[in-house]
């Protein structure tokens, strides 16, 4: 690290073969063997002490939970950009002359207003009898025809276009049925989807999410009004829509023999305003393969402050994803120091901390739609999201020497092998592939920023420590981070990024799994 001046001086003198001097910064090497020889020395500049120093700043109460578009997120952006600049990375956003480290853009901040579903003389109230997710095409009261469909395979354009599709949803189907059903409804141009829950399931979901739904939500600009509404409803509301009783509805879920009400009107009003935010980018230009890009990411936003709580109200997000953010800062500094010493990467490396992940992967989605460097030139994405804690399973054995690896084999068998090789050679973590299973109900592969690269055919590797009691709670504090474990994962990410940037051939894309 640049704070360890004596060590840095010794390092620069020692890098290379035996007692030979390393190359000067003016004569960068493209010798793969020499670059490989240099890698461990720069990996060692990534330390638990430096990760802790950075994290105790950006995950402090002063940063107010880094909620997207708010004061704390802006403070974190300034901190990260300052670190990139002082470490010698360049700001690659040439369109932003004021601050080339910022990729600025507007999101949309929306708040729910009045809402109801009227069926005949009955009126069911939003936030009481049903609650919404996402956007709303019902910003003024509109009549809509309803239809029942048991599974996503029935949701075709012919059957669902312009209609309100109702279906039953059990607790066990939350992660499995919803994704496919909502995607099918959007493809079919349905007006909305009503997920009818059981009474207990609805009560539990309302208790968990009602306060959050009443808070402003963030989305891409002009997003939501053209997509189907998503509505979670009580059995009473669902039965009224389907023209039956809750009891008969429960007995009839496998068929489409309901006769939905003919006089359904829906209002889900929503007010919106622009919300400015920014991804923070630092760039280390490559040498002989500089047109090809390796992207290293973490999200630096979290979920802010909840004034309704008693006691601690600030969601500091130390592990989620302060731990990944400070790892990216440390990797960026290591690569920048290597370049200054003449060991710069052959391929260029973009270090990017993204905004809006907690709101739906919005910052990485914006970058994928407005890339600073062409996506076809992007070799791979190394994504770091939560690397400083133990999850429930590993807490039982007090084993922090592990990391879940997700997605490395989905698009490139070579990336998977590189990760295995770098770990065995340098780090010796236990690589856990539990959440890499296609059938994993948690679907973590789809839930962090790497996915916006993967869905564009770019190989990714995602490092993740799993879920713990403080996940999305005010208790996610920097003093609970196991910095020695975070150091090991960050060093693994460094070695993988180093290998991707310096190997002779670009890794192959040899799988269509997304």
What general outline do the C-alpha atoms trace? elongated
Rg from Cα:
25 Å
Number of helices: 15
Instruction: Assign the CATH topology of the largest domain.
Output: Aminopeptidase
Can you give the mean pLDDT?
92
Oligomer: single chain
Keywords: Signal
Protein name: M28 family peptidase
Organism: Pontibacter anaerobius
Signal peptide: 1-20
Core attributes:
eleven-stranded mixed beta sheet, 33% helix, 15 helices, elongated, alpha/beta, Glucose Oxidase, domain 1, 514 residues, signal, disordered N terminus, Peptidase_M28, M28 family peptidase, 16 strands, M28_fam, Aminopeptidase
What do these coordinates show?
- The chain has 514 residues and is of the alpha/beta class.
- The protein folds into 2 domains: 5-90 and 285-502, Aminopeptidase (3-Layer(aba) Sandwich); 108-273, 3-Layer(bba) Sandwich (Glucose Oxidase, domain 1).
- 33% of the residues lie in helices and 21% in strands.
- The chain has 15 helices and 16 strands.
- It has helices spanning 5-14, 32-43, 48-58, 71-87, 157-160, 177-187, 199-214, 235-241, 246-251, 318-340, 362-369, 392-395, 413-427, 451-454, 483-502, and strands at 102-119, 122-125, 130-133, 142-143, 146-148, 164-168, 192-196, 217-220, 229-233, 264-284, 289-299, 347-354, 378-384, 402-406, 430-432, 460-464.
- Strands 1, 2, 4, 8, 10, 11, 12, 13, 14, 15 and 16 form an 11-stranded mixed beta sheet that branches.
- Strand 5, helix 5 and strand 6 form a beta-alpha-beta unit.
- This is M28 family peptidase.
- It holds the Pfam family Peptidase_M28.
């Amino acid at each position: 690290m640049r704070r360890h001046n004596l060590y840095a001086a010794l390092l620069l003198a020692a890098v290379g073969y035996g007692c030979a001097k390393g190359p000067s910064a003016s004569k960068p090497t493209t010798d793969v063997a020499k670059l490989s020889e240099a890698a461990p020395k720069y990996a060692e500049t990534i330390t638990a002490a430096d990760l802790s120093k950075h994290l105790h700043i950006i995950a402090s109460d002063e940063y107010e939970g880094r909620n997207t578009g708010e004061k704390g997120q802006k403070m974190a952006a300034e901190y990260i950009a300052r670190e990139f600049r002082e470490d010698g990375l360049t700001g690659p956003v040439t369109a932003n002359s004021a601050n080339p480290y910022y990729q600025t853009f507007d999101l949309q901040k929306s708040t729910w207003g009045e809402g109801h579903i009227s069926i005949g003389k009955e009126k069911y109230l939003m936030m009481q009898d049903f609650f919404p997710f996402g956007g709303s095409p019902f910003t003024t009261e509109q009549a809509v025809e309803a239809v029942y469909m048991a599974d996503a395979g029935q949701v075709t354009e012919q059957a669902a276009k312009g209609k309100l599709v109702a279906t039953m949803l059990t607790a066990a189907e939350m992660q499995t049925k919803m994704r496919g059903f909502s995607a099918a409804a959007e493809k079919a141009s349905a007006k909305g989807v009503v997920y009818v829950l059981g009474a207990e399931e609805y009560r539990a979901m309302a208790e968990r999410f009602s306060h959050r739904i009443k808070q402003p939500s963030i989305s891409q600009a002009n997003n939501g009004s053209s997509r189907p509404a998503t509505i979670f409803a009580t059995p009473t509301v669902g039965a009224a829509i389907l023209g039956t009783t809750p009891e008969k509805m429960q007995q009839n879920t496998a068929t489409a023999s309901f006769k939905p009400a003919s006089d359904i009107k829906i209002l889900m009003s929503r007010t919106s305003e622009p919300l400015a935010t920014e991804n923070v980018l630092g760039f280390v230009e490559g040498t002989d393969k500089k047109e090809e890009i390796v992207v290293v990411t973490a999200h630096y936003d979290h979920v802010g402050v909840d004034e309704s709580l008693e006691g601690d109200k600030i969601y500091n997000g130390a592990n989620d994803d302060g731990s990944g953010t400070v790892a990216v800062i440390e990797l960026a500094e290591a690569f920048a120091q290597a370049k200054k010493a003449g060991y710069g990467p052959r391929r260029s490396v973009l270090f990017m901390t993204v905004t809006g992940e907690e709101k739906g992967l919005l910052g990485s989605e914006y970058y994928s739609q407005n890339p600073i460097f062409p996506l076809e030139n992007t070799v791979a994405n190394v994504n770091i999201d939560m690397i400083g804690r133990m999850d429930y399973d590993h807490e039982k054995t007090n084993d922090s020497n592990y990391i879940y690896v997700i997605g490395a084999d989905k698009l490139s068998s070579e990336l998977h092998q590189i990760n295995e090789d770098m770990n065995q050679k340098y780090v010796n973590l236990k690589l856990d592939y539990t959440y890499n299973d296609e059938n994993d109900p948690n679907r973590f592969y789809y839930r962090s920023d790497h996915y916006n690269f993967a869905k564009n055919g770019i190989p990714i590797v995602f490092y993740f420590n799993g879920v713990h009691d403080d996940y999305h709670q005010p208790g996610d504090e920097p003093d609970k981070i196991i910095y020695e474990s975070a150091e090991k994962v960050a060093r693994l990410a460094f070695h993988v990024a180093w290998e991707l940037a310096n190997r002779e051939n670009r890794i192959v894309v040899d799988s269509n799994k997304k």
